[in-house]
Design brief:
Length: 392
């Protein structure tokens, strides 16, 4: 990922325009020396992180929560600021190819796009966590009349597959760089023919991070059309049994589940090839959707209304997670933007599908920087609690 190491510089008055990058504000961490630079570049707003690693050198890099998918945007923003402020660069891994056009990326979709997106194909399939994208690209090439929505949380993998789509000239893939567990809630009911979950991370020690859960099953069945299938493929015996328990357990009244062992698919992902070499067993579990679901109305407003920053706001922020029955709020860090504004980094929402966001607050307004949370019932309920909590 692009970054530069620079000699320390004065960050106090750097708001302004540098080539095509606008610095909106800087924010100082209240618990360390680190700072954030909020930038706007090519219609996207995101944060850069200044890590003050030593008194002689600072690292300027991306921020994980707001990172744009196009690495070129990050590179250009860092380079613009570095050139504009005439920073003393000690080390850099940024090479910009000025003549190389940015990818058109008409197939990159953001979570906000799903607010009122038009699905240009009658048939739709989803792949969750596509990794290198081998299976996703194969399916899209094989089924040109079906739209494939690939959802991948790992930004470099998503960017890599976007390049492949461009090279292969595929017109029926959308790539979304987000947590699939949240995105699924934005998809209309009865839309999909298939949902692939191939080799999800087993997360044996942190089960709340698993993709498969009762709520994921429920959402999948809502999103699938009648007769559509959720297809899990795993090399983990433990995860296989966990998934079966989720698909057949107490919370499920009626279902149709099919199991296969060591079934070869037409395409083998890089990841699967590794296990096959080691002669590991591979399990498939297919769950078929038995009925149509009701349409879902997502009419949530994530505005903070008249909530604004007051001197007492800081006293209200506790760094201990606040736990409710089915959700939580964890204010992780507060960054100060001069004396009259702050940026709060927080995680919130449901335990198995948390949101990670920043809230900007000044004396007149508050908003999520740089985008609103995903429109889920739990996120909205938690948003109301956040508002209550920050109100003084
Ligand atoms: C073990 S890899 C398997 C990749 C690919 N399916 C394959 O078969 O080679 C799991 C992938 O799932 C992605 N992933 C994990 N949790 C996710 C989530 N909640 N939403 C979207 N992608 C996720 C990871 O980033 C990783 O690329």
């Amino acid at each position: 990922m692009p970054h530069i190491t620079v000699k320390p510089f004065d960050t106090s008055h750097i708001e302004g325009e540098y080539n095509s990058t606008k610095v909106l504000f800087t924010a100082k961490d209240s618990h360390s020396e680190d700072e954030l630079i909020a930038v706007h570049h090519e219609d996207e707003s995101f944060l850069l992180h200044i890590k003050k690693s030593s008194k002689d050198s600072w690292l300027v890099k991306y921020d994980k929560v707001t990172r744009p998918l196009k690495v070129n945007l990050l590179k250009q923003a860092i380079a613009d600021i570095s050139d504009g402020l005439k920073l003393d660069v000690l080390q850099s891994n940024i090479t910009i190819h000025p003549n190389k056009p940015l990818l058109a990326n008409a197939y990159e979709k953001s979570i906000e796009d799903f607010d009122n997106i038009i699905y240009p194909f009658d048939s739709v399939a989803i792949e969750v966590g596509f990794g290198s994208g081998k299976h996703l690209l194969y399916q899209a090439e094989k089924n040109p009349d079906r739209l494939f929505i690939g959802i991948e949380i790992h930004t470099p993998s998503a960017a890599q597959v976007l390049k492949q789509i461009e090279l292969l000239g595929l017109k029926n893939i959308w790539v979304v760089n987000y947590d699939a567990r949240l995105l699924l809630e934005m998809i209309p009911s009865n839309l999909c023919y298939q949902i692939f979950v191939h080799f999800p991370v087993p997360w044996d020690k942190k089960p709340q991070r698993r993709v498969i859960s009762s709520s994921f099953l429920k959402e999948s069945m809502r999103v699938l059309e009648k007769g559509g299938r959720l297809e899990l493929r795993t090399d983990s015996y433990k995860y296989f049994w966990y998934a079966l328990d989720t698909f057949l357990g107490e919370k499920v009244v009626k279902t149709s589940v099919e199991i296969r062992k060591n079934e070869a698919l037409e395409v083998t992902s890089k990841y699967e090839a590794r296990w096959l070499k080691q002669e590991k067993d591979i399990y498939d579990v297919y769950v078929t959707c038995a009925e149509d679901s009701e349409e879902r109305v997502l009419d949530f407003n994530f505005s903070f209304k008249e909530l604004s920053y007051k001197n007492e706001t800081l006293d209200k922020i506790s760094y201990k997670p606040i736990i409710f029955e089915d959700s939580f709020i964890h204010f992780e860090r507060v960054f100060k933007i001069k004396d009259d504004a702050i940026l709060i980094k927080l995680a919130f929402g449901s335990f198995d599908r948390p949101e990670h966001k920043f809230i900007y607050m000044d004396k007149t307004e508050s908003y999520y920087f740089h985008s609103n949370p995903v429109k889920t019932v739990t996120n909205f309920k938690t948003h109301l609690k956040i508002m209550e909590h920050l109100h003084v």
